[in-house]
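Below sits the subject:

***
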Amino acid sequence: MRAFLGVLACSLTVLSVHGLYSASDDVVELNPSNFNREVMQSDSLWLVEFYAPWCGHCKNLAPEWKKAATALKGIVKVGAVDADQHNSLGGQYGVRGFPTIKIFAANKHKPEDYQGGRSSQAIVDSALNALRSLVKDRLGGKTGGSDSGRQSGGGAGNKKDVVELTDDNFDSTVLDSGDVWMVEFFAPWCGHCKNLEPEWMAAATEIKEQTKGKVKLGAVDATVHQGLASRYGIRGFPTIKIFRKGEEPEDYQGGRTRSDIVAHAMDLFSDNIPPPELREILNEDILKKTCEDYQLCIISVLPHILDTGASGRNSYLEVMRTMAEKYKKKMWGWLWTEAGAQMELESALGIGGFGYPAMAAINARKMKFALLRGSFSETGIHEFLRELSVGRGSTATVGGGALPKINTVEPWDGKDGVLPTEDDIDLSDVDLDDLEKVEL
C-alpha cells in the first residue's frame, strides 16, 4: 500500500516516517494483515490507538501509551495502528483525527470510543473499568470475545451474506449498484473453489458488518451461467473480479484467506470514504484545529462576493470540493475565506499581491507553506497538490513563524453581495466647506 504521507520538510518533501513504537515495546503494532487475527478473533479486550507519526499529540501520547501497555501486560491488550500508512483501517473505524483510541470489548464489530485522559494512569483505569464490564457481562451469560469466527477453514459466516449471482440478476444487482462488488466465479467440482468457500463466506459476513454493506461479496456458478463466464473471459476457477460502477472490472490479485479478502475489501472501502469537510474560516479555533490536526491544511482565499456573486463563488467552492474528494485519502484539512476578511493571514502567506482566488498549503508543524502558482482549476490545483505529494515545489516560512491572528466573522449566507447604500455612509465628520475648495 502506498504510504508516502509524512512530515512536510523544508522542501515540503513528504517522507515515509518510522512508527512511534518498536518490537521492544509492549504495544502491539497492528496492520491490515494481522488486525483480524490479533484483535477481531481474540477473546481479549483491546485498547487500540490510531495514530500518525507526524502528529504532535500522538508523539506526546506515545510514552504514556507504552507505560500503560507494560502495566496491563497479560491483562488487557494494547495496540497501535499507523493510520497514516494503513489508512484502510483508519477509514474502516471512522478515524478522522489523531490520535483516536478505540476499545474493542465484547462486540468487536462495534468498538467504543475511548473518552478518558491521556496519562498512563487514566488509560489503565479506563482499561480496567472496561475489563470489569466485560467480565460482568460474561458472568451474566452475555457473549464475550470474538464473534467473527476463526480463521482458515473454521471461519464462521452467514451463507446468505454471499449473494448468488446469475445471468438474469447480474446487471441489476452488480453493474447498476453504487456499491463495490467482489465476485467469485467458481465451478462446483473445483477443489480450490471448495477450499475458498468457507473463507469467502466468513469474509462476506465480516465485510458486510464492517462496511455497512458498501462492499459486497457475490458468487457465480460459471458452469451454469456460462453467459457471464464468457462475458468476463473466465478461463480458470476460482476467478475473482472487482466491480465498481462506471469502471471496467479488475482482477483480484490478493490472497485467498478470509483476512486477505477482508483487508483488500477495506482498501476498496477506504476509496469510498466521504471527502473532508470544506470549512469557512470564521474564527481562530477553526484555523488552529484544522491546521494542527492534519498534516497539511489547504487554504483558499476567494474573491470578494461583490466581485463574483454567489454563482461565481459556488463555482470556486465546487472546484475545492472536487479536489478534496480526489485527495481525501491524504486526510488533509480544507479551508476557505473571503479576500480581505483575514488580512493578517493573507500577509503571512504572501497572498493578495497577485490576485484572487489564491491557494496555499500549510504545514503547521514546520510553519512552512507553498503557494499555488498555476490556475485555480481542477487541472492547476491537481498539479500543485501532486507536486507537493512527491516532494517538489518551492516553500517559504509562514510570516512571523506562527499562525496569524484570525478575525471572528459571520459565515457567508450563500447570497449575492449587496452594495452599501447612502444611508450606510456616515458624513458627520466631513467638512462640506472643504469639498467646495478646488485646487488647480
